[in-house]
Each structure stands twice: as structure tokens, then as C-alpha cells.
Amino acid sequence: MIGEKGSAGARYHGVAEEGVPFREIASVIGRHLKLPVVSKSAEETIKHFDWFAHFAAIDATAFSQRTRDLLGWQPRGPGLIADLDRGRYFER
Known about the structure:
single chain, 92 residues, mainly alpha, 47% helix, 0% strand, globular
């Protein structure tokens, strides 16, 4: 159990996958919402996303190996794209 192995105030990164490209995430969301997904220049991205533009542009890679090692944790369940593709996030 994580609570038994973790340290108070510590930060852990609980992700199953490393580096899911932003475009893949946008593609799944666009498909479920029946919206086109298009590439934007840096200037267009800033105009479109405003304060979120930086996050949309960095395509950051996430790692959880340290969390896995420290806590003896292993992710279970579907990956991000498979989970989004289930469609439950888009139900009304």
C-alpha cells in the first residue's frame, strides 16, 4: 500500500506510460467530440490557447520509475489513450 511506504510531503508521479504525445491526446478528444484536430504555429497556439499555450507546446514526457522503485508500485488499468478512447469522458 502506498500510504505505508510513502513519505509525508513527498511527491510521487503515478503514470503508466512515458511520453504520450499531446497530438495523440488531442486526436482522441477530437474524434470523440467530432472536431477536427489541426496543427498550429507557435503564434497561433498562443492566440488559441492563451495561458495554456505553454503546456500545449512542451509535449512533456512523464516518468514514474522512481515512484515505482520507492513505493514498489506498479500501474494497473488501461493507458491514457485507451482510457480516453473508452468514451466515458465524453458522455452527457
